[in-house]
Input
Amino acid sequence: MNKDLRSFLAECRQMGPQFFASVSRTVDPIHEPCVIQQKLAAANRYPVIRFENTKGSDMPMATNLFGSYELLGLALGLSPDQPKGEILQRFRERVEKPLPTIEVPRDKAPVKEIIIQKDDVDLSQFPIIKHAEGNSGKYITVGCLVIRDPDTGVLNAGMYRHEIKGKNRFACMFNPAHHAAYIYRRYKEMNQAMEAVLFIGHHPAAVMGALARGPIESNEFEIMGALMGESLEVVPAETVNLPVPAWAEIAIEGILDPNEETADGPFSEYTGFYGPSKDPVGLMKITAITTRRDPIYHDLDPSHREHNLAGVLTFESSIFDTVSKLVPSVTGVYLPPSGSCVFTAYVKIKKRVPGEGKSAGMAALAAEPNLKIAIVLDDDIDFYNEEQVLWAIATHMEGDRDLAMIPYAMGAHLNPSAYGEVRTEKGPMNTKIVIDATRPSTLPFADRIQPPQKAWDRIRLEDYLDET
Output
């Protein structure tokens, strides 16, 4: 038996209100779940949320599985009291050791408990959300689309946005640089329909595997198993020649005919702004839906911090690897939610050589096209505490010496400040910035004040503070 969405929800429930919240009152799928999630965030609370009743559907719904960095650690088997730095370390260790999938018979696969085909297919049975007022419709936001490269036969899984276009079809918007876009374009060149499966609801470590960065030849199913710490169990689909995770809540099978496309958007993107409409995009026609007997629908608020945190470990790992090739003294990388998790990176190094700070920053920018700002810090800075980051910038950095700018660099086309080759036009370029907030490696600098270590280790607040 694989870990699954249910096992993770049960674990979060046992952890208490910091990690789990339940809503039994009926909510309207038009905006209400997102507003509840956002109001919790305004109170600095980021628990997994289970909605028991959504208007128009009999299914419960879970959201905010990636609401905090601690939840990412929990998904990887780390307890919340372990240092945050161990989360990226655990992720990196597991990704380096992919696990082959294990095929199980249909009668051992919960996702096959209910099979729906032909005229019975109807997406309205699911509590699919309209996330923001300006969105063009309801979207599936955290489904994992599985396709096969026609040239190599390698499976590919990724997470994209899918606007509902009717009871048996939905849009598939691929970023032009995503592997799925390359594969889809290949089917278009061959004038062949592309088979696909969209699975919804699995253990969050499996979802993180679908977001992993690697070569197009890598098999995300094997990375999902690595991150879960056990091989992913799969079962053949009913109507397409693709495997399906056996312990998924929902699997939607279908084909994308490149001769019949659609448009989608506007859509509330991770940037906090509405993204532009994309025309054309793929259109998936559903051939079958299989589910567990009592499925739990998984949703993600795309303009909430959980959208960014869902894939943050993948970005951090990629940046760490690239920086380490140029600056082996790198000790950590963190992409804060305040920087949309893809636009700003904090990089820590044990600086030994003059110029290492800028080198680390430039390597970080080269590692991830979406990255816009790289802030390089000394190893003694707690970069999970933004007070310390801003303090380091304010006291270590001088603009004329420690700030570097690279204009007209390939960047994030969804960033609302991005520009084209004509600066007044929209396009896929950003001006990249390196802020070297490290201390000099060979020159004297003021001593940082630190609390006495023995007293720090000895004193426990509960022994001194009066209870109120």
Notes: The chain has two domains: 82-302, 311-436. The radius of gyration is 23 Å. The mean pLDDT is 93.
